Amino acid sequence: MSRTCELTAKAVMSGNNVSHANNKTKRRFLPNLVNVTLISEALNQNVRLRISANALRSVEHRGGLDAFLVKADAKELSQRARLLKKQIAKKLAEQPVA
Predict the structure, then answer these.
(1) pTM, full prediction
(2) Which residues, 6+ apart, have CB-to-CB distance to 26 below 8 Å?
(3) How confident is the model at residue 98 (pLDDT cuts 50, 70, 90)?
(4) What is the dihedral of CA 17, 19, 25, 26, to 10 degrees?
(5) Which of 71, 72, 74, 96 is the most exposed place for a label (fewest CB within 10 A)?
């Protein structure tokens, strides 16, 4: 399983540890990934995703998984998230506007 957020495409970055004597050694900056279960109201089901803590905040800010995926750019999403986005868009298009 790669260390990549399924919603925001945040991944591992590389850089240097720099000592007081200015010695540089390679290191990795890992994203803060969390396994979460989010509820899709349009699909009426729970969805398990591995996303960053920052993405979780963004999902909550936008008003849930459905609203986040509708606005999200498909290039940044994982394959599973793209499939979810397509299913949600199809379901929302079927519903009559009240």
Answers:
(1) 0.86
(2) 14, 15, 16, 17
(3) low
(4) 0
(5) 96
